[in-house]
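Give me structure tokens for this 470-residue protein.
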Amino acid sequence: MILIPDVKRKNYGVFGLGLSGLATCEALAASGARVYSFDENREARDKTAQTEYRCEHPKNWPWKEMEALVVSPGVPLTHPKPHAIVRKARQENVPVIGDTELFARALNATEPHARPRVIGVTGSNGKSTTAALIGHVLKQAGEDVYVGGNIGEAVLSLPAFDKDAIYVLELSSFQLDLTYSLRLNAAAFLNLSPDHIDRHGDVDGYLKAKRRIFLNQTADGLAVVGVDDDYAQGVCTELMARNAVEVRPVSAGSALGRGVYALDGEIYCNFDGKTLLAGDLARARSLRGRHNHQNAAAAVAVCERFGVSPVLAVKAARRFEGLAHRLEEVGRIGKVLFVNDSKATNAEAASRALSAFSDIYWIAGGKPKEGGVESLRSMMGRVRGAYLIGEAAEVFEEQLKGAVACVQCGDLEKAVAAASADAAASDAANPVVLLSPACASYDQFENFARRGNAFRALVSDLASTNGEAA
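Here you go.
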């Protein structure tokens, strides 16, 4: 656990008691703060019943003596409108922050000789894989590495600071919006596609939040920036023009005169005017597809700064096992491969999965996001059929009309049954049943992980029915 300095006997509010919220309560209480907590969900409130930060309604909090309100990343700050707790805090002139800001304050209070190194990763897509891959490569190189934030452990649940350790944080736009004093030794911004517009107002607001990852970086820091989309390319150009931090561009489709790039799965580096072939990822099954090659390029760019040669980084990346719900192979029944890409909650993420396979029996749908799947029509040559579920099903069928045959399935169980039957009966040598929804999960599942777990269970049940091991 990471303890927070200068909070003893001070009042802090914590609103939202998921993993990060509970970890925040624990860290603040262990640091001597008086913690006032609340969650709108009764089950979440019940988890605090036997603690010193037992839930109490915010109307009873000592707002006039409150140092800060720590909110979960899911609490709206501005759009579609500020949450009531945020409005109350602002009325009382109480700062609204997140758990990553408390991490930053603990870090900033650490003496320079005892300060660990910290890496941050953000982007619309690929940030979880990249953060995990950076952690994997550094561990393979013998470093003490802790990975957390928006992936795995809550940031304040990570082990206490160790000067020889490296902390790798996945940072969402929501988390960055609540963070003010974090200074990263290395910051990676992978890409940006329109997403979370309901929370940020427009794409400019979303981009502004993502750019905060470079806030407070100093001349000895490193900025790694993807250049395969216009938004991130613009950020890269601006950072290079400012010349306040070393910038390493990364790409998964274009040769670069400087930085790290991937071409047909081969990773090239140029840090000093000489281009080096670092290695080949074409057969790394956990890093399929061009998007994962960009993730790997970013990991190589970061890890080189921390003493890992690009050649060794690529070798380590080949041994990376990947993450659940991100192009995860969950089984094979006969000739049919089943792939769980439940984390693909927007069209851009789904396009990356679709580009990684052919002869696809595609399961899509859920709670739709702005734009739907209109942008994916050009990829339907890879798709044998679209099996549609959830609230988005009818809209998706209309958007895909004439590009691919669509089957209205309603729910995931029916979609898996229909897609697997059609794939097995097809003339394709290696058909793929791909769950890559291009939607949020909230209409039928609590989150993308629950959706992915349900898919995995359905594939397992199907294999048992067929007398096979998935």
